[in-house]
Structure formats: C-alpha cells, structure tokens
User: Which sequence fits this backbone?
C-alpha cells in the first residue's frame, strides 16, 4: 500500500500493518451521539463548542481554536472542506461560512465512516437538527435513546397527577418506538452519583412528584431529585433497556468529583440492574475506574467518547489507557458529538488513529498478534454495540 | 548478543543495552505472592481467574481470554508449553489439559526467574497448593506472611474468651515461626481505609470481640470491625513485623474509592507505625498516590503487582508511572499471582519487559546512565525486599 | 544544526524541528518560584531537599540521590559545574562543596534561561536568600507574591485588635509595592479545600480573629481557620490580584486527597472570584482535574511545576498529560524551585525537554503544524504569564 492510499487516520504513522488499517477502516457503530447544527452558527458559538466545560463566552484574550480540539479541527476537517491540513482558524472559518452548515455536514458526516448512529435527542434539541436530518446528511441509519430525566420532566410539564406518575413513566418506556434502543441518565448533572440507589416504592415516588410539582409551579420543571432519578433507572431496567450514564467530563454544572463511576457501586451491585447492560459514557478522567468496573461487572461497558475529541493529539493516550482492565467485549466506540459535524468526524478519526498507533506498536514488538488486534478493533468498533443494543443493521 | 540469545522478556524491543538485559535477567524476590492451583481446574474456573474484579461466571457472549491478561497468557506462556506465541485460546487450553496442572506449574514457575517467594497463604487455601508445593515445583525457597484478619478469625473460631483475645493475638504474632517475615492486612476488603487508626485499648478490643462473638454465633467468623483491624495492625507493628496492605485493585467486594492509600494517612503519621516497614500492594489506579506516600514516609514502600498482570501489554505504562515520586529504595517487585502458575510467570516477564522498555529509552536518550539503570533494577527487583524483610537467602 | 549546537535540553532527542528548538530556547517567565539557599548547606540538608514529601532525615539505608530528581540533578546540573553528566553523587557533592553556594547558584540560575521570576518570599525565608539576591545571582528581574496566610499571621503577631483585622488586611493588600503582582494561598496546608468558600462578613472575621488570638496566646500564630482563609482569598480578589493556590503534591503535612482542585468548585463558581485570574500550582497527581478546571473557567490557569522536577525523566509524561483539556492560553510555566539552585535549572530543562519530545512527535506525525507548536511554547513559556500578571518586562 503506498502512502497515497492510506486513509487519513493513518497518515504519518509508521509501520501500521495493512490488516489493522483495513480493520480500522471498517464502518463503526457510534453508540452515543447527538445530531449536528440545524442551521448557520456564528463563529463565537462555534468556538464555545470547542470548550465543553465552560458556559461563558470565549474571552477576548484568546481564541478557543488554540486548544487540542481546535488544532484537531484544523488538522482533520480542513482537508475535507478543500483546505490544507492546519489551515488557519480564520481561513477555516471563512471556508466553513462559504459552504454553509448543510454542505459542511454533508462533507464531514459521511467521512466519519459510521454505519449506525445511536442518537441522544434530548439535549438542546432546538439548536440541533432532528435525527432524521442526521440520517439524511450522513446517509446512515439511526436509532435513538430515551432520556430518563427528560421523560420525567415531560410528564410533569403535561400536568400529570402525581399518583399517575409511576405508571405513566413505565408506560412511556414500554410504548417506546422500535427506534429506541436504550435509555440514558444524566443524573451526573442533577445530583451526582452518591445517592441512595435502592428502588423507591411507588408511594415514595408519588410523594416526591407531588413535592416537585409544588416546588416547580408554573416554571419549566427540572428533575433534580435523587429518588426520581433512582426510580427512572430502575424503571428502565425493568423495561429491559440498556442504560447509559453520563460519567466524568462535562460542563461545569456538574461536580466532577461527584461523578466518579465508583460512586455507582451501590447501583451496580443490585441484581435488578445486573439484568440489563449498563454503559458508562466518556468517563475521563476516571476512565481507569470505568475500565475496572467493566471488568468487575459482566453487564457494564464503557467508552472514552467526548474525551477523545477534546484531547486531540493526546487522544492516543486516552485510548491506550482505556485498554487496560476491561475485557475487550466490554468497550464501545462513541464520539458524543453534538453541534459541529466536525465532532462526528473527529471522534472517528482520533479513535481510529489512537487504536492504530497503540495496537501497531504492540503488534510490532510482539505483544499482540495482528489477528487479535484486528478482532479487538471489530469488537470495540462495532460488534460489542450490536450485541448490547441488539442492532440488526 | 544475537537476537536469538535474548531472554523472552526482551524480544521485539529495540536497543536495550546488554548490561540492562543482564540486570533484568537476574533472579527476583517476589515479595507478595500466593501459591498455584493444587490440582486440575476446569476452563471456566481458569477463565474466571483472568478476571480479578468479578465473582460471576464469564458470560456466554465472550471469552475472558479476550483481555490484556488473556492475550499475555497466550503470548508469554504458550511457548513455555511448547506452543507458538499467540496460540489460540482453544489450543492453549487443549495443551494445558494434556500436560496437567503440575507439569504446567513445573514449566512456568521456574521460568519466572524468582529466587525467593514471600507467600500469603491466607486466601482460598483449599483451592491452591501448600507453600511447600510452590517451593518444590518452582525449586525456590519461600517465606510466609501472616494475615491479620485471618488470625483474628481463627482465634474467634477457636472459642477464645474475649478477655484473652488481645494477649492471644500478640502471642500468636510473637510465636510465629522463622518462616514468617511479615504481616498482611486485607482491611481494604472489610471496611476500607477511612477508619479511626488510633491504637485501641485492650478493654475496647475485648468489648468488640465480645460483640463480634455474639453476632457470629455458630457461623464462620468474618472480621469486619475497624477497631479490630486497627488493633491487629498495631499489634503487628509492636511485634516489629513489616505490614503489607492490600491497596486498590481487587474484586468488587471492595469499594475501590475507599481504598485510596491516602486514606491511610491517619495510620502512617503515627510514630508507632513508623517503626516498621509498611508495604502498599498493587495500588492501581492509585499507584501515583502510593508513590507519593513512599516519598513522604521513610518506612513506606509500594509495588504495582497484580495490576501489571491484568494490564498485559499496557503494563509498561503502569511500571513507568510507578517510577515517579518514590525513591528507588522504596519500590518492590511482586506478581501477586494466585492460582494459575501463568500469573507467577507473567508478573516477572511483564515487569522485566516494562522496565527494559522504559529504562532503555531513558538510557538511549541520555536521561539516565546505564549504571544507574542497572542499580535501580537490582534495588526494585530484589535488594529492597531483602532489606525490608531481612531475608538471608 | 549540528548535534554540538543543540541546547542541553534537546540532547539525545531525535527529530526535533529547529523552529521548535529555537522557540524552546527563548527565555521563560517562571511564574512561581522561591529563592535559593543563602549560604552553605550540609549534604544531609541537600538530600532532604530531594524529597518534597518527608520532613524526616534520609534514612541510613539509602541516599535520596537515588530518585528521579536525584538522577536529574546529576544528569543536568553536573555539566554546568564542570563534571560529566551522571557524575556520581559523591563527586557531585565534592564539586558543589568546592565551589560554594554562591558560585553554584551563579552557574545554575542564569542557565535556567528565565527572564522573569515571580517569587513567593514566604516559605522558610531564613534559610533562603532575599529576592534581591536571586535577581543578582541570576541576572534576572523579579516580582513578588504576597502570601495570604502569612499576612494574616503577621497582623496577629503585631498585636492588632480583632476589630481592626479586616480593614488592616485589606489595607496591606492595597498598599502592596509595585513589585507585588499576585497573592498566594497555602490553604491546602491549613485545612484543605473542602470548606465554606462564601465571603464571610467582617463581623464573622472579627469574631474568628478574636478566638484565634485567644487560642494563640504568646505563641507564634498559625492561621488554620477556613473562615480566615476564605476571607483572605476574597480580599485578594477584591484587590484585583491574581490568586495562586498550592494544589496537590506537597509535604506530608497536607492531606493530598483533600487538595484535589475539584474541591475548589465552590469558590471558582463565585462571580467575585471570576473577576481575577486564579492559578492552580503543581496539581500532581490531579493535573488532569486542573486542566479540566482551566477549560471550565475562563479565569483559571494551571501549571505542573514541582511535579516536573520530582518526576525527573518521567516529567515528559507529566508535561504531556498537562496538554489535554486546558486551552493553551491557560497554562503556565513554573519550577516551584526552593533552596537548591539546581531546582531553578531543572524545572526549565525538564519542561523544555518534555515539550520538545511531546510536540516534536505531534509535528513529525502530522497532528500539529510546527508553527502551532512554536506558538504554544511561547504562550505557556512566557506570554500567558505576562498577560495574567500584567508584566511589562
């Protein structure tokens, strides 16, 4: 294979075996992603997306392009928009504006090499496109997740009687469409993980909903009750749904030290929860703890999505650190992209590149056989997700 | 030296100086190990041993061979059983069965290149061989540890009067045989480290034993009292024994976040404890914290055993991370092998290989002199343990 | 450029682009440093300085030179004193003694290639030289920090009336000389970070000072009041001063797990604090958490000083890990040297070397453009500090 034939993710890396490049070139299942922007964004908004942690405007003394993820956008996305790698931020922005959001998305989304997206439609849905648009622009089928806190909030906003809440919640989970393949909890953002994870009685749920409704009044409801989060998770498990948890890295609304996945032990030890897959998302900087949990519980898997994007050139080490304690059957690929279609692309390029660099070294030095490396790529890249979510595409 | 002359641990690594290979080829002291299986094991049981965290059977959707440690077994142990490196799991299992447990052990244990084992005989002793068998099969002398929680449980099971417990506990420590070179605490598994570490009065111990006996009744006693654990540790210190603590990585019975070694500060700051060596075992993912404690306390040393085995090809980074804050006089080698003799071998191969790759780079790039590298290998590989445990072999 | 022309920090590294070497050769701003020894030190005292964590003498069974920082001293400082790299500890000590403290300092300090020191004059000031001496011996201008806990202790020692404390504290901050460019808190050493960070009322401060004075009596006052620390930090913010916090690694007086920077969230979320720069110092082993905070808060920056020195050859990975989540505009260089002028030199050599190795690889493999690498070096090496502290030199 000549250098010119190498896929982008492998450029500049020495001695990656052809079989490994082929395996990494195969389409991925991105098991946790959001859709991309519905329409034009201003540069300020785009730059804010290059920062996961801060809700503030980028300060005048800097550009957020001066970050690992900003450099990665200029390196890996620029060529797909007809620019040189490492094009300047200004040139990148000019070209992006010239093309428009849909053209950018249509250039970047298919290049991610994903054959199935599992979409969390629940975050800031007014700013991003519907799932169908992602499917259209990327040419790739989508499944969806149901966000547990959002479901509770929708019920409350609908004016439901507190007494009806438990049954209605369960009914909504039972009546989910065929496109829904899992549930997601963002309890990390609401109260952290250190809560009483036992399954609350329906009576307790009703009382809590009553108090919540009273406190909310005419305002938009926001579920921040540990008890209702625990109820939602148990209801999802009863419904037989795989349950995703936002873990670790996120915006500063959350207390990072309260979303160490070890604080989920009280939940994970319950037999009722062990009957469904549990997926720990992102996990940085607790990805080693997540890997340990994925070893210790046969129903737990994890990914290092989101972190891989923000770590940019350092993503190779984040990927490497994820390959320690967890059996290879319990790791998944995700981008956790939201907003800029650059992120859908970057997640896939950086994960493939990290795997290529790490696994090629192990193969070259004799620690792993190349056939094993190929198999692990397939497991983490797609087949584990197919098993967990029972995907048929 | 031609490639064919290289010891297994150095194969595939470029530019490791001959002096360093020689130093790493010298026999090790494995300061914390268990014995290997006494007799035949089924494949299911063997695969469960490839997972430290989970007490569950390996689920049907996977083989536990698909993990770093599983790959490492196939890579490093297969050739010693007459197979090719990376032999398939099925071929490996067939060959292993054909040979039988003793022949496998006799092939792998001596190949570990260990000249002294310090054995913890206290875990699941009915499933593994007696210490004498390890000595026989490996051709290597053994010392032993006395497990503090087990000692307390034996006393209670013997029907001792609560009033006699403190003196009897101390007497058992004093009357230990010459083969006993240290004590071990698994308080990590019983209540974590965040407890009152002050030395309890004998009166308090007696009252606690009384309560424990009453609660235990006719059942097999299990010591889970923080006070009795603190008593045991103080008694071991009074007896002048080096004290090992299980830290970090273990099965999911423990709360990993409650066995961060920093939570031992209240113990380590006590002058009574500072008079004996304290050894922090395994420590992953808190090995940086352990290295810091080994810097901060002149009587504290640590190792990254167990983690090195489970990390497989990633063990090089675990070893590298252990070489940061701690003086080189306060780091030890251990495998923490238990059960499969594969683990006794793997610990040594992976530690040697990790040291070879890390130190060779520092020598090659000029950060370290080769004589220093050789000396550090000797310290961590054997001489520190000889000093700590006053070994004379 | 021939090998002979390479600056010391780049020796032995393959393929570092000339532009990157040039950028790394440019003078640094060391934004947190102490002065070096005022006069002769004994070898025992010097060796104790090679250990940050322990207040104890180095035990007889070892030399503290057998550590990463000890090896780094022999590697990088020996040639500047006319010895071979890796000179033995005994030879190094003999040469050092022969030269005397001032000559050693005059050889090492200018070689650090620093063009501005920001000095914390507050620790063990009787053992180290005044700031003016550092400026003289290094030929480099200095600014200073004002230590908040020390200021409080000076006020109490002066016999101030408790009622006057709040105003006097503020007045001292307001009347600082032009050489003072920031404040520093060592609350890490006094009570950790998990405290009530709301701004206390002056009445509450007065009551606390009254209690503190009563408890102190004739003794030298030591501020260990969370409330007074919070007051000091808020007063510094009111005065518009950048505020440094000791975070992570330090001597064993502190509880390392209580100085995880995440425990500062309650402070960092306050608008009053967000109006001034906050600088997280050292941070090891929590530097990833610090990087996250520097992403999440536009006024937060961090460094990995101190840790870089103690990690020696491993500093390259500490530097690499610091280049993940934080925008490049929010990272600074510091040595946190104190005492041996070796540390002023080492900080700069190891940081430059780490950056050279890490960034050269990214450039070589195409992840970063060389112009970006050069720019990031300038930002972290000097221009960010100039902006944060409004330096004009």
Assistant:
């Amino acid at each position: 294979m000549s250098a010119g034939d190498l896929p982008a993710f492998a450029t500049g890396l020495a001695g990656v075996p052809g079989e490994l490049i082929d395996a990494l070139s195969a389409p991925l299942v991105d098991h946790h992603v959001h859709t991309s922007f519905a329409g034009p964004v201003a540069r300020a908004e785009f730059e804010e997306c290059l920062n996961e942690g801060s809700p503030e405007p980028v300060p005048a003394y800097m550009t957020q392009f001066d970050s690992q993820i900003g450099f990665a956008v200029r390196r890996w996305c620029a060529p797909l928009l007809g620019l040189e790698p490492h094009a300047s931020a200004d040139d990148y922005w000019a070209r992006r504006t010239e093309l428009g959001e849909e053209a950018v998305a249509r250039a970047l989304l298919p290049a991610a090499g994903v054959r199935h997206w599992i979409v969390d439609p629940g975050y800031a849905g007014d700013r991003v496109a519907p799932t169908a648009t992602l499917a259209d622009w990327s040419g790739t089928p989508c499944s969806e997740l149901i966000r547990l806190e959002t479901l509770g909030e929708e019920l409350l906003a609908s004016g439901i009687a507190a007494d009806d809440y438990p049954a209605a919640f369960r009914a909504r989970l039972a009546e989910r469409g065929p496109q829904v393949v899992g549930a997601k909890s963002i309890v990390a953002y609401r109260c952290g993980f250190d809560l009483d994870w036992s399954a609350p009685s329906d009576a307790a749920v009703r009382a809590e909903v009553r108090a919540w409704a009273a406190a909310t009044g005419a305002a938009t409801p926001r579920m921040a009750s540990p008890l209702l989060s625990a109820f939602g998770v148990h209801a999802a498990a009863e419904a037989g749904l795989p349950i995703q948890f936002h873990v670790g890295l996120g915006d500063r609304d959350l207390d990072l030290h309260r979303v160490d996945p070890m604080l989920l032990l009280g939940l994970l030890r319950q037999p009722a929860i062990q009957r469904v897959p549990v997926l720990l998302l992102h996990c940085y900087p607790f990805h080693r703890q997540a890997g340990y949990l994925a070893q210790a519980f046969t129903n737990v898997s994890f990914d290092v999505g989101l972190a891989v994007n923000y770590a940019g050139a350092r993503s190779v080490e984040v990927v490497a650190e994820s390959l320690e304690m967890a059996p290879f059957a319990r790791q998944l690929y995700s981008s956790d992209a939201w907003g800029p279609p650059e992120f859908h692309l970057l997640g896939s390029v950086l994960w493939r590149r990290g795997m290529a660099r790490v696994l090629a070294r192990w193969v070259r030095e004799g620690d792993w056989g190349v056939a094993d490396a190929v198999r692990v790529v397939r497991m983490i890249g797609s087949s584990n997700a197919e098993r967990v979510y029972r995907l048929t595409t």
About this structure: Strands of chain B lie at 28-33, 114-119, 142-147, 180-185, 243-247, 278-282, 300-302.
